[in-house]
TrEMBL record:
The keyword ATP-binding applies. GO terms for molecular function: ATP binding; ligase activity; metal ion binding. This is ATP-grasp domain-containing protein. Keywords: ATP-binding, Ligase, Nucleotide-binding.
């Protein structure tokens, strides 16, 4: 691929952490152009939409070819998605403007729809969790019976969602139909109507986030984290903490060959990969994969832990032609997601006074003001605050982590 020919970089849905792209490309000498996949950003991303950051803004109104013709004036060499909501449109525009420079077009749906992901893994012979997509509860019951999953623990979620949105567990004695009906037909935080439901066998084990960057089908690690998540009632996947791991960590080495197989199976050949993998007693199993940068503030913590991140890796490759193989863990970092136990009025921000005296304290962002109405934390979008701890001593990290949890336990939220 040639580099430096066009002065413009086109970003489709530069939202969530994709909002960091315009400044990064400007610093590298490129002028950012935004394409929004709708008239407005999805509800979850509204606060991250900054049209003033771009030289030009274009809106998709339903005609991909017409939009491509609008964008042709920029003579793009490539297009990149900034957030999950822009992945599909970005793939479509690439085929009109710069065919052959993106991921495998025939597998586009497998990079966005969790059911299609599973089918792509099956076609490639990659181990996967048993799952089924349908809008018909009768078909769902038939599949559950055929796979001996009736009365077993299940996960129910939309085929297209992100950040733990509407992900439910059905316990052995639970009613899967109630959760099925709860998901079907609702509008999720991506702004999409759930026209079907994904039913999945429940995976026991440790979950990992594996961030990657690919060039011409060769995959490299950007960072790897071990997730800790918690559940509340039938809601699972509530983020509790992340711990960054070194590339030579045995846990990472056990995950990486499988992750490469997943990337190949869904046709990721160039750009960012964001892969969630569960290490089960039967080996690694995919939870989901996305062809875009990690969201939820992850670019900042990735840079603190490794000196690099998806955004920097993308700009280095796209503008300067630089390709990096792997990463270095430069600091031991733990990210904490502060959980609100219920919806109501947040009465005591001062509960976190003194947190900056912790030996490992690096940064904190409380997302709500005193007396503001806060939502119950049920996913990544609804956490109350973020805390970052960094220290060379694991014992210090653990002690400070538990001190943060003690502060969290003192949060006062008054119901309406």
């Amino acid at each position: 691929m040639k580099h430096g020919m066009s002065n413009y970089t086109i970003i489709v849905d530069p939202l969530s952490t994709g909002q960091e792209y315009p400044a990064a490309f400007r610093e590298a000498g490129r002028l950012p152009v935004a394409v929004l996949s709708g008239a407005e950003p999805p509800p979850a991303y509204t606060a991250s939409w900054h049209p003033g950051d771009f030289e030009h803004v274009h809106y998709f109104t339903g005609d991909v070819q017409a939009l491509a013709e609008e964008l042709r004036q920029y003579e793009p060499e490539y297009l990149i998605p900034g957030a999950e909501s822009g992945v599909e449109l970005c793939d479509q525009l690439i085929e009109f403007l710069v065919p052959g420079t993106g991921n495998v077009s025939e597998l586009a749906s497998a990079r966005r729809d969790k059911w299609e992901m599973a089918q792509a893994l099956a076609a490639a012979g990659v181990p996967r969790l048993r799952q089924f997509r349908t809008a018909d509860p009768a078909d769902a019951e038939k599949w559950l019976k055929e796979n001996d999953l009736l009365g077993r623990r299940l996960v129910i979620k939309p085929p297209k969602s992100a950040a733990g949105d509407e992900v439910y567990v059905v316990f052995e004695d639970g009613d899967w139909r109630e959760r099925f009906d709860r998901v079907l037909g609702r509008t999720n935080k991506m702004g999409l109507t759930n026209d079907a439901v994904l039913i999945q066998e429940y995976a026991e084990g440790t979950e990992y986030l594996v961030d990657t960057y690919s060039v011409d089908g060769k995959h490299a690690l950007v960072d790897v984290c071990r997730y800790t998540k918690v559940g509340r009632g039938d809601k699972i996947g509530i983020y509790r903490r992340i711990d960054f791991l070194a590339e030579d960590d045995p846990e990472v080495q056990a995950l990486w060959p499988y992750t490469e197989q997943v990337l190949d199976a869904v046709g990721i050949r160039i750009g960012c990969g964001h892969v969630e993998v569960m290490m089960t007693p039967d080996g690694p199993r995919l939870i989901e994969v996305a062809a875009r940068p990690a969201g939820g503030g992850h670019q900042m913590v990735s840079e603190l832990a490794t000196g690099d991140n998806h955004i920097k890796r993308t700009v280095a490759h796209r503008v300067r032609g630089e390709v990096r193989d792997g990463f270095d863990l430069v600091q031991h970092l733990r990210g904490i997601f502060v959980i609100a136990p219920r919806e109501g009025y947040f009465r005591n921000r001062e509960v976190f006074d003194g947190i900056d005296a912790l030996k490992s304290f690096q940064w904190m962002k409380i997302l709500y003001d005193e007396d503001a109405v806060v939502p119950e934390t049920v996913d990544l979008f609804t956490c109350l605050a973020w805390v970052i701890l960094i220290h060379s001593d694991p014992a210090t990290l653990d002690a400070d982590y538990h001190r943060v949890l003690e502060m969290e336990a003192g949060i006062v939220i008054e119901t309406r």
